[in-house]
């Protein structure tokens, strides 16, 4: 800083100090304090003359001009000497003299009209002052039409601070409060107009204003905290539809909304921000200036001139440059392959192939993190964590209430899982469920009374129960040990709470194919016997071993051909999916499986009944016949238990398909490219971006966690907790738990993600993700113009399809109403929307690059094309995900009902295993299911995944004031009312005694597609997004 400016600042400091002591009029003393103080005296004297003139002729144009000049002179005095030091000029007529009076400290510096600002006058110039002031007066007079000052007042809503801040963050919070109170570091907000500033060629900008009362509200504990801010802008400023925010604090903060009201006409502008604002002190890409647009949207061609550069600048910032390691505070959206699922540097057994980017193992893309490659293979990404967890853009992370709920849910499940894990390690003993009572006690008495040793050593007590008194003291002190010395109990799944033995009935087994956790896999049988599409040279004859003799006795007098013609035969076919992996899976320790087919018959009452299960193993040698076995229902004890074992293997296949395909692949992995492309190519100003926002929430966070934990080799639940500032006991708990992933909990083990890739390669199509098209492809529905929704269900009582079509039709109508608001009838309105075209092209050619040449991709040329695409997206992110996610604990929370893993094959006569089976079929059945440690692990996972967060937003709900367009708000209100109608219809269906798949003795009502829900495990609720 130059000497002249330093002198000037010192002059103003002394001026302020003397003013506060009442010595302003002692001009001799003032002039002696500094050679430059005469400048301030000239300001004061001229100020007196101007004020005298204004009050003498208050209505004259001269008065108006003079007041403007007063403002400019007031601004010409350096702010360090007056404003920031607590002084301001006050226009008070007291004997024709102006006085300097103390003013209450404010953090908002005066904002001036560019036209009134004396830009030609140096702040501390000592020459030519009078002439320059005169020129300024003439300039003001010439531009008086724009000199009206408008006051804009803002209410800024900031989200709750982190519920579990680190020690460092707590310290920085304290420093920020002190710095803010002293005015050393503030949060600044600046308005940008839709009008162009001719001097800059960009939108007009206000002076930055300081967020008020941050320090004063530093101790306030609330979910949301509101602050104020004020701006002054000239009358010709234009419409302020953008806010630029700069955070000079040390810590980030969550900016939720800003609402601005004009003093001129009372108009209000609303900014839905919902973003973390990082400190300017961080090295970010790009600069720390953050841009937020109002809730008014524009197609790219209609963007106001003042916002065009900011629209493109913000998109460019979100795309990044595709280089370097991403930092956890950044907001960069980019793509990469699934090359981070293994950890070969840790152990060669943890090597996993990269998915995506090759024809053999195609897969959708995920968010790029930029982590370094492994030492073992440069094409694989290391599992090195950034800040304790995998990178995702900062704004995609859980909000505080969601994060707190999710962590609490994980900890609750972890405590349940810890008991068997700890006991197995502490006692060096494997534990088994020896009776069904052992499983039942998980829900009635807790974990402690459920575990019995599988060894032949002496029991801990006469009953074989592991006593809590035998557990080391440090374990007994953990929070999952109750005061009565029993472990915490599991919540009872709704299915078992209604009928303890429902899982054993064939009708319930078949009902869950239509209304359970995986209702989108069953197909109508179109040819008999079923035929494989696999290579017969490798996998044996293609024809199924199921014959007419196996099933015709159960077809109500029909032949197989007649049942096919009447469209009453259905199949759950996992043969071709699992057969290529069966041999490898069966070599894994504690894993045994088949490739299964299950046939069903629809009886006269519309109830689905199982007919036969085919269990297939690959040929022992190439060219030999596959080993196939067909089992059918029977009441004779041996046949009955063999049938129960066959159904368990079907459920094991179904569980793998459900988690790896129906759930993870279709609703999580395939959705992530839609989220990334929306942020990268559709500006917040775009109406389709505004439309999609609630359907993107939390998806990248839950997917990132899954990549680190659930779908990764050697995954550990909640790795962010392990690497946090957790206490030593908590970290020990995680170490004792060991690995927890889909590989450890589901039959396919280390081949899980390769199976998922195989389905993506062979069957996934974007156009077939539409519910009506999926039902038609599977043969479960036919087009019928006379039927509701234009479809006729072949199984009328198909709860997933029936309720799903209600949601689909409502979504389709809402999409059409919204699109019609913003796009004209001409096809060019879609084709010429370059942001929209780039968005769809990026989804196809980058996000799903391995499928980019497929001919079935929709072309985005008309409004109808756009409506089809958006309806598909909303359905997948909301209804489809809800249908396969929130029923997991209801049906999988009781292991015998839907086992996730099988450990033994079905015994064959003449073998030692068959002897063991006939001696104690119940014990053999239980030893086929997951052991207690495996069972409680999967129960932990699905317990956490089945629960709703308190901040969940459901279909038909959005944050307030999401749009400024009345037509859009009215259309959404119509959609909301439609959701209430859907709820009423679902309630009525669940009371209809004719619909036996959703009502009756012991039958849970089908509510998975009921739009709203409360928090927790409810078995209902359709969130807007894939949020868990």
From TrEMBL:
Its cofactor is Fe cation. It comes from the Eukaryota. Belongs to the lipoxygenase family. This is Lipoxygenase. Residues 297-1028 form the Lipoxygenase domain. Residues 361-383 are annotated as: Disordered. Residues 167-291 form the PLAT domain. The lineage of its organism: Eukaryota, Viridiplantae, Streptophyta, Embryophyta, Marchantiophyta.
